[in-house]
Amino acid sequence: MKMRSLFCLVTWMMTVPFAAWAQESETAPGPKTDPAPVTVQRDPFAEPVKRPADPFADLMPVKKPPQRKNLVSVNVLGIVYGQYHLEFQRALAPRLAGVLSSSLWMTSEDIVPGTEQSSTLLGLNAGFVLGWNRDPLRGPGLMLSGGLLRIESSGMLEFSKTTGTVKGGFVYRYTFGFGLSLSLEAGYLFLDKVGTYDIYNGVGVYFSGGPFVEAGIGWAF
Fold first, then answer.
1. Is residue 10 part of a domain?
2. In whole angstroms, what is the distance from residue 39 CA to residue 159 CA?
3. What is the number of domains present in the chain?
4. What is the model's pLDDT at position 123?
């Protein structure tokens, strides 16, 4: 009887630590693992989320450069030669501008000693400028215009005539932000040779076209 009691006591003492170790092993936390990434798919039929408007947007408006549609310029280089040229341009569409111009040219020369021949030429042209930039009043462009030229010459010879002209060339224009515009134009003026000749005195006066160069200054508004 004593041997049996002793055997049961030894068996119980060996069982209790083993059970406690097994329970601790079952409850011990395992290694930590990162959760799988969650992909959120946007509903293509859902209405977009409207963000509240900025209450200070009207207090700080965005400053935009002024849109200038008109340009008036004069040929300062021609004034040295007695030629006055006034031009008006109007932007009609991207890269396209309409042109109206008028010119006055007054000359005086001695065709024979002691005899002065004075001539006045008055022209009016209309055409267009095809610009490289969207703004036809800025940068490079091609110009083509046509019109009428009235010629009056008096002195030893009397001559008057109205004829047609065609003017074409290349123009480059730089316009500052505040409106000042500088331009350089070069091309050719097509004009049939017109004039008169005095067979008795062997003198004559003639007018014809040719290449030209103009330097202009103007104002865009």
1. no
2. 92
3. 1
4. 96
pLDDT in tens, 195-207: 888 777 777 888 8
58-96 core/surface letters (b: 16 or more CB in 10 A; e: else): eeeeeeeeeebeebebbbebbeeeebebebebebeeebe
| Distance in angstroms (rounded) separating the CA atoms of residues 171 and 186 | 7
Task: Tell me the whole-structure pTM to 2 decimals.
Answer: 0.65
Q: What is the CATH number of the domain that holds 85?
A: 2.40.160
Q: Annotate 10-24 with DSSP letters as a single string.
A: HHHHHHHHHHHHHHH
**Two structure tokens written together for 140:** 């490079």
Return the minimum-mean-pLDDT range out of 44-58, 120-134, 158-172.
44-58
Cβ-based neighbour number of residue 171 at 10 Å: 20
State the residue range of the domain holding 82.
71-220
Burial of 136 (0-12, 13-18, 19+ CB in 10 A): buried
